[in-house]
Specification:
Two copies of one chain form a homodimer.
Chain A lengths: L6 E3 L8 H7 L9 H18 L6 E4 L2 H12 L5 E6 L2 H12 L3 E6 L8 H10 L3 E7 L1 E2 L4 E2 L2 H8 L8 E5 L11 H4 L3 E5 L10 E6 L1 H9 L9 H8 L10 H17 L1 H21 L15 E5 L6 H12 L1 E5 L8 E5 L6 H23 L1
Chain lengths: 371, 371
């Protein structure tokens, strides 16, 4: 069933290096004991430079979407107005969560494949004067677009201390792309273990600004499991309020050691280099990128499937004959694009395999087309 | 840091057998692909006999407490009256979650260390005629007590089709103790991967009755991440709405193979036998059980710490000199009891080690007392 040679290139979960997988399989420990506290403390410290924050990130047991829900319910109250900036599936999801919990959601949408213009955010904030929080996707995994978070954050923060909070979904960016939470004035930043962190899914990581903690104190959306206050209080003792995904925390500990051994700037440079290589390779195969070239992502590339190529047959051929697993299109893009995840554990040899598999599967698809 | 000889006897996370740990470390797969679908389908099928249900249990990414929150928000609306039967920390927690989401909570408490009398539940249901749901802990991990779930369920269901829903926290019971969801008329049953299932923490498993699905359709508590409808819809395709803890699902797949190879009745018999052995051993050491002997649990044993023995020194000695890790008391029981978890991967030799470690640490404690 399991293909040991697979080149897993969905935009998460990402491949897990051997030593990280072995860490996930280490003997179980008491999550209230000193071994777990040491691992958790190392993870929290290791995350900070990648978030660009001095505050301790919180570890939550759940998917990235769980961490997004946690961000919403901890800083907002029912009836609060939020500006949800959405450029794809995950922006829509962030907005939907806020709406499900009773926020009044104003949606600012960009055409899929494009980034949001900072000016459009400024304009929307002028139209809606009571915005409590702006929801923004840093890197939109469904379209392969990276928003200019620093520029948008500057726009949001124009109002100074009374400015709206900025909640940034960094699920597929933090750990691979430069992220400067404190410098840019991000109030809540979210990521997940199964993306840039080369670890299995199961842990969401989230960091808060002082302003976010003040908002937490007043927020009245119902919460229990996701409560940040409980997580912070337990975090100071090196534990979590509820049983954490211990194996994933052990994996993160090992993965962060690898990342810091490589060096943060080297990790970012590798992602830039790999992103460039993949886009160049895709074009050399005669394929088209889905995203606006000016705002392409260095962690996810969305590629248009040529007309008359059957998407599901093409993806199946890639998987079965070429040991390459890529992501399909989401929502209305299903069947018209495929998505390559290139965050975390990826090097030139993986790109070589990726491109040669794509070349061969494309030839097959075109031969079948010709028949 | 890590002690490879440790006998981990907290009431979760429980020890993970080697082949299960190796399964957790298997190469990562696409959670939208056929390999994951096969694993998830096998897990769902393997869980059903242990839940005693024909319906497919849902897999949620989170701690047991997350699954408890999911149970509440999927079948209740703000203002609904619930009867929270609580005999310890986890009963209180179930009640607190319902309250946090706006239910009107009536608490029926038994003295800690005792079970709830079915008659007391009947009486409470007579006093409160508009109860929408009864919340009940099957096995209370904080006190080592098992409630008579079948008898209480019969009382709750006396009203027939209009009877309140029964939401059972089976986190530390299902998979180790007999549990007959369909026969007993349980409406929502919850458990977690890190308890009887010998797997790492990170996945909650939850099953619903038809009546619970009807309540789901009308329930208005806010929900997004925990939405059961999304989980069911994705479940029919062998996937989850949001990225699951893939490694934990792989672990569960392997653990369930071990459990079914042993046989469900043999698993239950082993837990009864181990429970008896531990209680007998504890008494032979001159120690007292915390729980009423009539309602002791076969998955968790709470033991009184003798007067004048320093609890934290005693637990530290157990851990550091004897490689035995047990749980401390929770809430007001901190310092006055310790708790032994004996669910999942436990055999006679573990009990022998447990008892000899306790004997030796007790001698040390008593010598120090004598000084």
């Amino acid at each position: 069933m399991q293909d040991p040679f697979v080149n897993l290139r969905v935009p998460g979960p990402t491949p897990v290096p051997d030593q990280v997988a072995r860490a996930a399989a280490r003997p179980m420990v008491n999550h209230r004991g000193p071994e777990f506290a040491a691992a958790m403390t190392e993870v929290v410290e290791g995350l900070k430079p990648f978030f660009g924050t001095r505050d301790d990130p919180l570890l939550l047991t759940g998917s990235g979407t769980g961490a997004m829900e946690a961000a919403i319910v901890n800083v907002l109250s029912p009836g609060d107005e939020v500006l949800a900036v959405t450029i794809g599936v995950f922006g829509d999801r962030f907005a939907d969560i806020a709406q499900a919990f009773g926020a009044t959601v104003h949606r600012l949408q960009a055409e899929w494949g494009k980034a949001i213009e900072p000016d459009a955010v400024a304009q929307a904030l002028k139209e809606h004067r009571n915005i409590k929080a702006v929801l923004l996707t840093h890197n939109e995994t469904s379209t392969g677009v990276t928003n200019d978070l620093a520029a948008i954050a500057a726009v949001v923060r124009t109002g100074g201390g009374d400015a709206p909070l900025l909640l940034a979904d960094g699920v597929s960016s933090i750990g691979a792309l430069p992220f400067e939470m404190d410098v840019w004035n991000i109030d809540v930043a979210i990521t997940g273990s199964q993306k840039s962190w080369m670890s299995p899914p199961g842990v969401g990581m989230i960091a808060l600004s002082e302003r976010a903690w003040k908002a937490y104190a007043e927020a009245r959306m119902p919460r229990f499991y996701w409560d940040f206050g409980k997580a912070r209080k337990n975090g100071t003792r090196g534990t979590t309020p509820f049983t954490p995904a211990v194996g994933v925390v052990h994996a993160l500990q090992e993965a962060l050691r690898l990342m810091h051994a490589e060096g943060q700037e080297a990790v970012f440079a590798r992602h830039r280099h790999i992103g460039v290589s993949i886009r160049k390779g895709i074009k050399s195969l005669g394929l088209e990128l889905f995203a606006d070239p000016a705002v392409v992502s260095n962690t996810v590339t969305a590629v248009r499937i040529p007309a008359r190529v059957d998407a599901s047959a093409f993806l199946r051929d890639l998987r079965q004959r070429h040991h390459l697993v890529v992501g399909s299109g989401q929502d209305w893009l299903k069947g018209s694009i495929f998505r390559i995840g290139h965050m975390g554990w990826i090097h030139d040899s993986d790109v070589d395999h990726l491109l040669s598999a794509l070349r061969s599967a494309l030839q097959t698809a075109r031969l079948e087309e010709a028949v």
